[in-house]
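User
Class, as today's exercise, I want you to study this protein, comparing sequence with structure tokens, and judge whether sequence predicts the tokens.
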Amino acid sequence: MRSISSAGRRRPVRPIALALLAVLLACGLATVPAHAATPPPSGGPSGTPTLDQVFSALGVAQEPTDYVFLVDTSASMAGNNYDQVLSILRTYVASLRPTDHVAIIGFDSVPSPVYTGPASGAAVGVSRLPDVPTGSATDIGAAIQYAVSDEELGRDGASPTAAVALLTDGAHDPPPGSDFPTDSGPAWDATARQASALDRPVAAYAFALGSDISGARLLQQVFPKTVVPRLPASQLPDYLGRIRKQVEVTAAVDLVRKDLAGGVDVSWSPAPSDLSLPGGHRTLTLRLRSTTSKLALTVSNLRVGGTGVTVDDTSLPRTIALAPGATWSGSVRVTLPAATGFHLGTRTYPVRGELTVTAAVDTPWRPVINRDLDLSLSLHQVAATTDLVGAARRGVPWSTVALAIAAITAVLVLLLMLWVIRYPLLAGVVRAETPDGRSSARSLGRRRRVPIGRRFWGLRTEGKGRVYGRRTKTGPPVVWVRFRAPNHSRAATQPLYPGTRVELGGTYFVLTDAGPLPPPPGQYGGSGTQAWSSGHPPARTTENVHGDQGDSTRALLPRLAALQPPSAPQRPPMPPPPDHGDAGTGR
């Protein structure tokens, strides 16, 4: 067995460092952090687990052990420090854990068990061996057979681990009539089969205390991995101390051996073999399950690919630690290729593809398994391909189309209502007079707007614009004229009140018979002025014109007089309207 070297040994602190620390503490300048006394981690370099950590993870360090000591009591042992052997054995069994089970069997012609019970009483059992060895024969086969029988290692309720230690000084010398007359034969084969049928690991040591090692080697016929050191009795304590470690190694080998060819199972939820992708995509759950029962695993370089579909695995970690038998889950998004064309109403069509999962599987225990347990790993790497079969629905559902049409209709109705509220129905007649004396009139006819400059149904005049009404927040609607003359680059806008004349770009606009439209602000109302009523617009005079219009204005006076209704009473001259600035500028 390889020797186990302790890791992380502390170097002795130098006297100079101790003196410096004492000075700093005395001066009150040094403070020791709370974690300074914490021992370093017991792991090896780069976080590699140690053998003791693996034993602890496997649980073998806490398991009780059955110990069977076969002590040669033949007369030849008297010359090989028999007393020293008993003393060493007594000390060793006293150091075992109380939960361990100990059997002490002396043998010469026949095996004679002197103690079977807990380790706490084993030291007394050693004293029951003969003080002086006087046996005339050495039947090693019979002693080994008794150790593996139902009386000891094969008994019900045995401990999970066991150890057999044979202490002899010579060759196999059975008495007449022994079942083991030679070093081999049917009895040896039957005993070996009985030992192999034990359902637990057994560590075996055969200590050759004399010059003849042949008898000690017979234990290898029953337990092939028996350690057979030839040593004097003075070295026995050191080798007995290795039995416990060998028991743990043997138990660890037995536990880990079942997982050497383990790996990781891959599964999906929902199953890709019957998948529905209603919107052309779906989020699947990838599950990785460790198939080992004792061995910790590490999954690295995890990748998910697809054939016939696009796979997004960016959310997956590249390294995953899996405890024995544990399951890890992660999300993967599967998307179909972009559809061509546009379809009203959904259509269902079949989907076929593959999902491929690849990853490397290893164990952080690999150094310990290869070096200390002397085992070879053959873990299965992840390379799983799963068929993807399902159905996808594409297109715009009719319910979505109906909802969109309803929303658009509602918006249009709302805009129409706002337009109707903002632009009221007009009434009356609007007339346009151009500077060259031409005129055009158009009945508003309960319209909301009348175009200017249109050939067929608008006011026929040079330039373009429109006549429209606008509601106000506090009063009745107001008629507005927006007009751009041919020689102007920008349109001008002015309110058109009943009975007034507005000049925009050299063209005059007059509104008559407007119905209940408001009079111009500051005119035909208030104290000292006769109020204007519907159907009786005020008389048109030259004072209605914005400023002095020259000869062109005087030429229009006869036409303006014609606009006066015959039944309208004579009114006093209107005061001049407020100055609106340049008639060509917009409001």
